[in-house]
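Ticket #4471: structure output looks truncated?

Reporter: J.K.
Steps to reproduce: submitted the chain below (266 residues) through the standard prediction queue, then opened the result file.
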Amino acid sequence: MRSVRFLCSLLMFSAIFYTLLPTTSYAEDYLVGSGDVLKIDVYDNPDLKTTVRVTTNGTIVMPLLGQVTVSGLKVSDLTKKLTRLLADGYLVNPQVNIFIEDFRSKKAVILGQIYRPGIVELRGTTTFLEAISSAGGLKEAAGDVATIKRISGDKQEVIIVDIKSMVEGGDLSHNIPIHDGDTIYISKGGMCYVTGEVKNPDAYSCNKDTTVLKLIARSGGFTGKASKSSVRIVRLVDGKKTIYKDVDLHSDVRANDIIVVPESFF
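Returned output as attached by the reporter:
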């Protein structure tokens, strides 16, 4: 009961913080992208004040300057860019302020034991708890571990978030930032996750009689590119991620295990 109350307190705090974030943002490291709405002020030049949405090709139209490419720039770098452009023959010592009035370019997906599964817009730097809060919080059936699927280039990474450590130990080191394009999965208690070279990577129920082979079978079996002899189990042991390599397919699994089937390079 104490753990549940502690988690509720954490989520309530995050929800209040997330809700009370202003419609504008001072996140200097936020990367501007298509769909974001920018509010731009130039001190002592009210005629240059504008609110504009970033187009699909990553540009805005700015008074005096016309079309300016902004996508992929940090807010701080964009501020410097507009300051430099305005100083180039237009204004003396311009002072530019930029705020994010609407975040639309950065998104994550939350699935599983959450009250409002779906897409979450990432308002600046968004942590795991803030994302969970914005999706309505965890259901009672949620397990001790969440998984985050993150794709970087052509590589896919599965990150374990130890909810139990946050709940019982108050260890907020697991409250990691969520990245654009992440998929967060909150599994039920007694669930395992299968990823990599299987036909249907997903979360599946597991118990003391479940083996690696059974889970792979439930996930549709190996793909043609799978390395069947190099299967790994990622498991939390005393709050630390432990990786077991080249496991026997008849090995038993534990709740919250992640079964990783790598690609064969031969």
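Triage note (M.O.): checked the attachment and the full token line is present. The chain has three domains: 37-102, 105-189, 190-266.
Status: closed, working as intended.
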